[in-house]
């Protein structure tokens, strides 16, 4: 199977509502670099998607929701890392969130707070109070493939565009191989 990419602004039905709103709010030059393609929702998980659609893992990015806790305070953030790496949740992310403990946010919480489907969460359209931490390696990907907010589609955009999105903090060493 091949990805049938179209300009994301022309296909708001292929992204979650908060993602469509975020795309519409982007400066036109950035928005023009973002494409979207429908996929089989049963193949949304990274390994299955890459295998079925012929996408290299090195071109696929994952957006994970992390909850950092210090006392009664919980801080949420999104971490974007290449599929060939793993976010350093217990080290780098925990320190960036000034948390005693950091872990993947519970699925139900992530879905409720983002308005997106689990397995399709994307940095486009996340709650404005969240930090969006992107590993520096993502910047160098020519066309990064990431969730569209729904499991039935994927977004493609240059890594440089992803790193230039509003609120993104590029963190060298956020992930390890």
UniProtKB/TrEMBL annotation:
Transmembrane segments: none
UniProt superkingdom: Bacteria
Pfam families, A to Z: tRNA_edit
Domain YbaK/aminoacyl-tRNA synthetase-associated intervals: 43-160
InterPro entries given in the database record: YbaK/aa-tRNA-synt-asso_dom_sf (IPR036754), YbaK/aa-tRNA-synth-assoc-dom (IPR007214)
Name of this chain's protein: YbaK/EbsC family protein
């Amino acid at each position: 199977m091949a990805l049938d990419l179209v300009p994301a602004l022309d296909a708001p039905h292929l992204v979650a509502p908060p993602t469509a709103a975020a795309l519409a709010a982007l400066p036109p030059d950035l928005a023009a670099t973002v494409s979207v393609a429908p996929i089989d929702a049963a193949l949304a998980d990274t390994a299955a998607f890459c295998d079925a659609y012929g996408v290299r893992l090195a071109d696929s990015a994952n957006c994970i929701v992390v909850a950092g806790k210090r006392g009664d305070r919980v801080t949420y953030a999104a971490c974007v890392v290449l599929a060939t790496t793993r976010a350093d949740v217990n080290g780098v992310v925990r320190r960036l969130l000034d948390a005693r403990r950091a872990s993947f946010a519970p699925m139900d919480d992530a879905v409720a707070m983002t308005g997106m489907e689990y397995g399709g969460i994307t940095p486009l359209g996340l709650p404005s109070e969240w930090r969006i931490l992107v590993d520096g390696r993502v910047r160098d990907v020519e066309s990064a493939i990431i969730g569209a907010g729904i499991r039935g589609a994927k977004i493609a955009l240059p890594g440089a565009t992803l790193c230039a999105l509003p609120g993104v903090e590029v963190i060298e060493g956020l992930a390890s191989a």
